[in-house]
Each structure stands twice: as C-alpha cells, then as structure tokens.
C-alpha cells in the first residue's frame, strides 16, 4: 500500500489511531511515518516534549524535526534505521532527544515496519520511551543499594556462572518471586531463550562487547511468559566481574502496538477484518486454494434505519448482523466488513456450498432484531463470484461479485445472484478490447476469410460468405463472438461494416477480372447498417466503382434485425433487390416470428441454421422439420442454403431432401482470399456420387442378419447387372443409404435392434423415392398391413421365395422407381422453369415500375419547367438536334402569334427569317412585333440536347 492509498483511510480510523497513541502515557512518544520518512502523525506526549504544534512538524522528514537536533549521532543512527525498516527490519537503540526547555532526554527508541496488503512495507511506526530514570537508577545502583530498590525497572546482578546474585524489588514483582527465591535461580531459569548450554557463549559475548541489548521473554512464577527488553552491562570491580542486567517490561508497549495493528486491520465497530486485511487474506487464499468463493452481502435499504432511528441504533444493527454472519459460516471462512452496510465472506469451497450458505444467510438476516426496544426487520442481497472461473485476482473477484450483487438488487433484492460473466462496462478485459478495436481498422488488423457455398445439384462452388477475422499483434486471434458485440454496442460496427462491404466487393470483382468461375459474394449486415437510410445507394456506388455485376453480390440479414424495424427493413431490402442484389435470411428456424413475415419479406434465400441440419442417425421428426422448411421455401420461390454441415451424412441427407446449397467445415472452413482462389482454380467440388448424379445404374440394397441369405440372394441376382449392396443390420443399411443412391430396398423382417418394417419406415422418411419390399418368413400380418397401407412398404414377399417371381418383383420395383424418377425430374424442371419465369417477371415488373416512376418524374419535371419558363417575361424557345421546335413559353408563342401547333415543326420554317442566324448561335439585334430584341442561343449538353433561344427586349423599342 502506497502512502497515497493510505491517506485515503477513513476519518474514523485516523481518529481512533490518534486516540490510542495519545493514551500511551506521558513518557511514551509515538508517531506514524510514511515510507519516505515523512512524519504523518505524532502523539501529544511527543509534541509537548518539544513544545510544538502538529502544523510545525507534520509533513517534514523525521530526522529534520526538533527531537533530533540535540545529537548528530542519533540522527545518523535514525537514517540507518529508516533504511533497515524499509527492508522489513525493526530497529531499536538509545537516543538523546532535545526538549523545549533545553534539556536532553535519554530515550529508548524503536522503529517498527508495518506491512500492507501486497506484502510490502506501507508504514513506519516510531516509538520512544523516556529511559532517563532508568539510566539514573543504573548509575545509582553502583553507589547505593537504596537507589537500586527504588528503581522502577527490574534490575539483576548476575555472576559469570549465570547465578543471580542480587535483584531489586521491581525484578521480584516482575517475576512474581520473593527475593530469597530469586537469588537461588540462574539466568536459564528465567530467560526462555537461554539454556545452560547457551549461557557460556552469552557470557563470552558480553565480555567481548562490554554490553548487550536484546529482546526476550522471562518466566513468571505463575507460568506465563512476559516479553522483555534486556540491557546487560559488564561491570568489573577489582578482581570481581559481574553483569548488571536491566529488564524492561514490554507488555505495555506490545499492547499499544497490537492496538495499532488492530485499528489498521480490523473494523472498530464490529471487530471484523477491515478492507485492508480482507484484500491481504483473500490474496493469500487465492494462492493456496484451488477454488475460492466470494460472497458480497449488502443490507437492503439500511439507510432508513440510520435516518429513522439514529446512528447508534444502526451501529447496534451492524454489530448484530456481523454476529449472525459469523455464526452462520464455518470457522475456516473469512468474514470482513468492507464498509457501511457491506460485508464480505471468503469461502475456500465449491460454488454449491456457497449457494447453500447464501440461502442460509438470507434467512438469518431476515429474522427480526430487537434493539433498545425497537423491532427491526431487514433483508439483504448477495452477489457471488468464484475463482478461478470469474477471476484469479482479489480485486477482479470482488468487482465481479459486486456485479452479481447489482444483478440481485435489480431482480428485487432479498436474494442471491451468481456472476454470469456479463459484458460489464468496468470489465478491464472488455475495455482493453474496445480500445484495441478502435485501432484495428487503422492498423490493418482486420481481414476477411471466405467460406465456400456449394451447390448440391452439381457439387461445384457457387458462392462464398465473407466472414470477419481479427488478428491482434499481441492478443492473437480474437473470436468474432467476442468483439462483434463490442463493435455493435459502441457503434464501431458502422465503420467496420462499411470496410467489410468495400473489401468484399473489391475482392469479388478481382476474382472475376482474374477469370475465375462466377460466384456470389455474401456479406452479413449488422442491425445498425440496416437502419442506415443510404444503405442501398452506398452498395450501388461500391458495385459501380468496382465493376462487379450486382447479381454476383448478396447480403445476409437475421430475423431479429427485420422484426425490430420491419417496415424500414423491408424498404431497404426491396431497394437492394431492385439493384439485382440477392437477399438471404440467416439463422432461419431459431427465431420466434410468424411465418407470415417470411411471406412478406423480400427474401431470395433462406439459410437453415446449423441446429436444424440433421444427420442420417437423427430422429425422423428432425429430418421432417428440415425437409418441411426446404419445401416451404421452394413453394415461396426461395432457394435454401444449409449452414454448419459437418459430415458426409448431413450433406447426403440435404441433397436427398432437395436442399439447394450448403456450407460448413465438412467441405471447407473459411479461408483467406489466396487459399480460396487456389481452391477455385483447382476446381474442387463434391463427389457427384454423393449427390446422386452418377450414371443411372440400378442399385439394390439387401438387408438380412443371416449371411447365408444375403449370399444366396447375391448369387440369384448376379446376372441382372444391378449394383447390389448388402447389410446385416439396420445401422449398416442407413450408413449405406447415406453414401449411395439406392433405388430398391429388400429387407428381412426380424432383425436385432430394429425390425424390417421399422427400418423401411425410417427409409421412407429419409429417402421417400426408394421402393421398399419385405422378404420374410414371418408374417406379423397387422404390422405389415399397416406399413403397406401407410406407404412404408411396396410389397411383402414370403420366404422361401421363388427365384423367377422374386426377380420379376424386383424388376417391377426398378421400373416403378425409374418412372417415378422421370416424373419427379419433369416436375422439378417445370418448377424450375416456373421459378425462373417468375423471377424474370419479377425483374421485368421491377424495371417497368422503375421506368414508370422515371417517366412520371420526367413529366413532372417538364411541367414544372414549363410553368417556370412561362413565368419568365421574355420569349424562350427550345430547338432539338434535328432542328425541330420542341419548347416555347407563353411570351414566345405570343410573339410569334401562334398557339401550341408551333411545336414539332421545323425552326427554319416557323420562325421569322431574322432569327435564323441567332438560331445558329450568332448573337444579334432583331426587330419583331414593333420592338428591338437581343437574340441569344446556347447549346444544351445535358440530358436535353439542342439549343435554347432567348429574346431579351432592348431599350428604344416602339410601343
């Protein structure tokens, strides 16, 4: 914690700290230094000693204050202690301190480092005790026993062998012993840190240095230990040598230090850890626990208690809440008060346990409280976040628990909410992405990849979908679902969308100029783009500038974008279709709108969402839904593209269901432009056998779980020239049907897992064009009859079979299949021709409507021009390139004495001879109708071709 952060400590904390230091006693000086050695606080005892006010000393470096002016050596030792304290080392030494009276005090000085939440030294606490009296007592001890007995410090005289030879009354009181008892002991008997083996070394050290000073603890007669500061001096008197020991009881000082620590790390009102200690312990927990849950609890509408009943009642309520929380959680859980009416619980446990604890806390807080005769009812809201899922840092975890708490309040309070990873404005990762995204366009970090769209009729690539990609230089690849929502929310999607349109159209035009096969470029529009009034004009300008045929460009929109602003969206899409741009409805089948919207929308293509693309193993109802969508779209004269195709089985089933096109990872992922161009040049396509476009070899599928039956049937049918496939289970049969276009199916009835009737029902749903027969020795009349009636089975054949009859039945089935295929092809061709005719009619109608509107506009423009020129008080005539009069305003007709029959005639024949040269472009003065005119003509080079002749009256004309 930096000093600036520390300075933000609450005022009540500062006040309590000052009170503690001021109560340390008149002989104890205490203060607070920041890590720069600047004095931030000094207690009253210290200030009174130098006769200074706080304003005179606070904010100064400690060694420059008056206390240190009496002794340069003390200043030097202080500077060394400051350096040691910043390394986390405590210092203690004797100093000489000047007072306001001019006297010098001998002080026992200590400098204690205090650590912050991040483990670094945040504060330095200097404290000093006046030891002048102790020094005088030690001096007097040499002179008189009486002075020794009056000393307030515990004094001992110890011999070289460690035996206690003398002790004053203070020493006896300190240790709880009589003098006679004490004199029978040795130093190891009372010093907890010195035993018999260590004493000789301690004595030698004393003899070498002459004095020792250290902290230890001494044993009281009652058994407890007392922290003590021990000063030892070597005394030589003649031939006798002994140690003079002064023991200073540190309990008062330690209590003051503990009180300071308590105020720094604990909430004074509730006794719970405060914000600083919470961060420190939470950080330690996150380093040691694999999963940690943080609950932030806030009382609902607590302010009304303080305002209505007073802050003393509010304080009592907070103490009761703290007690209830502590009683609810476990001993290993940390409960802290972060401030106000907000508490934090840290649980090194899974989320399920935290949810149970949260519900228990809600119930505990909701119980009535009785405070000074008041019955108080409270509720609380709780936000929950879990590490490492929601963050691995203490500040991140608490911030996301706060976000969950905010959600709990929005949901009505008195409940717990779990952080759900929503996009929060204060999420630093999201803010960093937003900032980076603003530079992505400028720094060319965005690029387009292109996913092929393949025609399921002939298997060739007929289009691509442009997909946006972002490769950040340091963050790497950033998924679109991460940055697109940010772009939409911030409005950056408009600039990005314009860039995508321009780049995609330019790329499509470049491919066409390179001679690649024609393919349609599809671009996804955003909701904001669809609201732009100039969208169609913008796309028209880009297409014109690139030279790309509008029929080779398409846009994709989602259902939700259209429903939100239906009328405006329809207007824009109609304008795009009028240009020849193809419009696709993306993610169809995932929205909630009525199908009537689909009929009203100007849509060319329906894109089936990947969630509705079935496989051969999918339930029959899923296949039916997909097939119904395809049929419905075709009935509305729309094409169908399936996206997200990831297997051969899906592609085969879509082809069998008459889906027009597909795209997905099975064929190709989205590729950079160069890779896609290489794919196009290589002519990559789907194998025609998968799409049923191979030569029409009759294909029979035999299904029987007995291998000998299958082998016998194969031998029987060998001479027919058919392609015979065989399977011994329903699953194998379905896989073969996905890979081959089967004409006739001959299946046994009784098979493990799925009966023949069930299999053929499934085949009818997946491949309704197949002809299906059952060959079985078990009749099961009812189920077979039902299957025949519903069309699942064409015929039932019994075992054992007659070879010729069996071959005849199969030939009949193939003939029926070929006739059905022919009818279906004819129907498809008719429908295709109808669709193409309808499309041509639609485009023709569009062109006619546009031409009609243009004619109406031109007529209106001409009428407006006529009215305007009629109002001009001078004759004006228009002559086209053929020399015919095509326009004359009112003054011109009056001048020529003609009506409307003047128009359409030759100008040279109808106009006076004097105007002929003016018509040819020569300005001149002429006389007409008894007055003089200045005749001018100008060539018209716009949409109107020819000349405009204007006659301006000149002064001097006759009336």
Describe the structure in brief.
With 959 residues, the protein is an alpha/beta fold.
Give the count of structural domains: 6
Helix content: 40-55%
The number of helical elements comes to 36
Assembly type of the chains comes to single chain
For the record, give the distance between the C-alpha atoms at the N and C termini, rounded to a whole number: 103 Å
CATH topology of the largest domain: TIM Barrel
Mean of residue pLDDT values: 83
Strand numbers in spatial order across the main sheet: 18-19-21-22-23-24-25-26
CATH class call of the largest domain: Alpha Beta
Biggest sheet statistics: 8 strands, mixed, barrel
Q: Tell me, briefly, the overall form.
A: flat
CATH superfamily of the largest domain: EAL domain
Structural class: alpha/beta
Proportion of residues in extended strands:
15-25%
For the record, the CATH architecture of the largest domain stands as: Alpha-Beta Barrel
